[in-house]
């Protein structure tokens, strides 16, 4: 897929482009050309996404008779073995954060014991609510609640909920602020101000809950720009956001300054510590430079921290925290008139997986402070070696000053081609854009002996290859390149929706 250089167009106001795009797409020839190009990109994806077609039985209808359990188990084992090799050997950015066999076996055993439990039925499974309350409390106290609560009555303490993941934690917080602002301030057209680097879950929340998302470009160090944030405030602003650290570049926003700005104006402030919540407290104790980011700052009113990332629990849990019970109560839902009885539910789901909550609890209490400290020590040491190794490659540079998510780009080479060459060597890195870069989120998988050395060796070889073959096009590199420069966002959005359709094809 070849695209002309559209750099010029990036300076045209977005609104004009949206109108231009609408009219352009209405021209049959343009439409046909777009469909053709989209089709070509998608058929490339389809081959990669559906490797089991033709090799495994596929089900579009229920089998008339149930298949034998043994046969199904063997099939699942085969799939797992095939798919685990890449992440197990540490070839993947993020994705699996612990991954040691004994740890996985333990978490699975806990899940198996509690797979039937559901905290929606608190009287049937009081263990599930005990686990949930304790996971929230342990996470809160790891993130400054002990200091923040000192001397305050219980209703002003840091509290929270367990959710299904970072996205739900963030969405719960935004919905809570929206309802809080409507009730206590009478704000009916709420806005939030957040750095361009904050996770798209905030835009998803904005989209779902009718909050305007005001994005502010980050500074030269890839951290949120405090002065620009101040300028973006309006009478309808209800909260500010900062990340600790941000997903793209792994840098920690100036949370102290941002949260103080919010506090002085009576606004909410959310620290997104989905990624760093279970690393930064230990990094700080290990002597790494970690600026304040948690409830020790009086302006921080909500936080998110993912148990299913560096908390090392099974996928499907995260913690959202609030300063005080009054704020959290705006998260809750109650129904008093339903013929099915009196109903209430604290988060988005009704029934919830008690087994996953038990697994999160069991992970936290078996890891303990010492376990998280050791894990963080290994991750941070490996990340430091990787960061220095990458910075030593003359064609590459590290973006910002990260701790354990290392983004790098190049002034002389197409970094997406480098990423593609790394892919050919088995490495699955995250492509970033605006500016073009890739990142590696360092996990315990990368702390295994030899992994970091192999990464750097392969990276040097990939850089050398791209340098020696400037004419080589690559398959995915142009798509990534396009995503960063194409001014018609609708075209890209349409493509992504078609991609999602593809996921649902048998
Ligand atoms: C992963 C992540 C999220 C979203 O979490 P999910 O569990 O994928 O929904 C939000 N913010 C940051 C900084 C993250 O790294």
Automatic annotation (TrEMBL):
Pathway the protein takes part in: Lipid metabolism; sphingolipid metabolism; Sphingolipid metabolism
GO biological process: carboxylic acid metabolic process; sphingolipid catabolic process
GO cellular component term of the entry, any: membrane
Subcellular localization, as worded in the UniProt entry: Endoplasmic reticulum membrane
Cofactor: pyridoxal 5'-phosphate
Any matching Pfam family: Pyridoxal_deC
UniProt keyword annotations, A-Z: Endoplasmic reticulum, Lipid metabolism, Lyase, Membrane, Pyridoxal phosphate, Sphingolipid metabolism, Transmembrane, Transmembrane helix
PTM annotation (N6-(pyridoxal phosphate)lysine): residues: 309
Enzyme class, broadest EC rank: lyase
Enzyme Commission designation: 4.1.2.27
GO molecular function: pyridoxal phosphate binding; sphinganine-1-phosphate aldolase activity
TM region positions: none
Membrane topology: Single-pass membrane protein
Family per record: Belongs to the group II decarboxylase family. Sphingosine-1-phosphate lyase subfamily.
Protein's recorded name: Sphingosine-1-phosphate lyase 1
């Amino acid at each position: 897929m070849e695209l002309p250089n559209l750099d010029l167009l990036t300076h045209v106001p977005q609104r004009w482009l949206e109108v231009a795009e609408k009219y352009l797409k209405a021209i049959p020839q343009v439409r046909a050309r777009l469909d053709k190009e989209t089709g070509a990109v998608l058929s490339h994806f389809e081959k990669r996404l559906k490797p089991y077609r033709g090799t495994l039985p596929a089900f579009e209808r229920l089998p008339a008779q149930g298949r034998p359990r043994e046969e199904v188990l063997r099939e699942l084992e085969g799939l797992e073995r095939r798919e685990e090799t890449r992440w197990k050997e540490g070839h993947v950015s993020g994705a699996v954060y612990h991954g040691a066999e004994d740890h996985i076996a333990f978490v699975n055993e806990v899940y198996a014991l509690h797979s039937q439990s559901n905290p929606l039925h608190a009287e049937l499974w009081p263990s599930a609510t005990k686990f949930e309350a304790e996971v929230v409390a342990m996470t809160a106290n790891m993130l400054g609640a002990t200091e923040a609560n000192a001397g305050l009555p219980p209703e002003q303490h840091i509290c929270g909920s367990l959710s299904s993941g970072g996205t739900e934690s963030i969405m719960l917080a935004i919905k809570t602020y929206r309802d809080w602002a409507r009730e206590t301030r009478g704000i009916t057209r709420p806005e939030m101000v957040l750095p361009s680097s904050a996770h798209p879950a905030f835009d998803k929340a904005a989209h779902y809950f009718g909050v305007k998302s005001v994005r502010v470009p980050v500074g030269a160090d890839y951290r949120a720009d405090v002065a620009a944030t101040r300028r973006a405030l309006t009478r309808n602003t209800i909260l500010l956001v900062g990340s600790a650290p941000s997903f793209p570049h792994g840098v920690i926003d100036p949370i102290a300054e941002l949260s103080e700005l919010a506090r002085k104006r009576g606004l909410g402030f959310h620290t997104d510590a989905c990624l760093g919540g279970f690393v930064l407290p230990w990094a700080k104790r290990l002597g790494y430079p970690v600026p304040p980011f948690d409830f020790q700052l009086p302006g921080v009113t909500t936080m998110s921290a993912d148990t299913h990332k560096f908390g090392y629990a099974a996928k499907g849990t995260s913690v959202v925290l609030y300063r005080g019970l009054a704020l959290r109560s705006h998260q809750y839902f109650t129904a008093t008139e339903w013929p099915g009885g009196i109903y209430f539910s604290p988060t988005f789901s009704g029934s919830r997986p008690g087994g996953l909550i038990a697994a999160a609890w069991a992970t936290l209490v078996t890891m303990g402070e010492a376990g998280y400290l050791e894990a963080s020590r290994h991750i941070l040491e490996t990340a430091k070696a990787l960061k220095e190794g990458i910075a030593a490659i003359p064609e590459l540079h590290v973006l910002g000053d990260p701790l354990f998510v290392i983004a790098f780009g190049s002034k002389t080479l197409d970094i997406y081609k480098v990423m593609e060459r790394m892919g050919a060597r088995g490495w699955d890195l995250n492509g970033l854009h605006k500016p073009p870069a890739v990142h590696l989120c360092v996990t315990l998988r990368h702390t295994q002996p030899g992994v970091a050395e192999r990464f750097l060796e392969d990276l040097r070889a990939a850089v050398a290859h791209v340098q020696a073959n400037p004419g080589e096009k690559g398959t995915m590199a142009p798509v990534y390149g396009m995503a960063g420069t194409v001014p018609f966002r609708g075209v890209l959005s349409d493509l992504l929706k078609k991609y999602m359709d593809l996921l649902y094809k048998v």
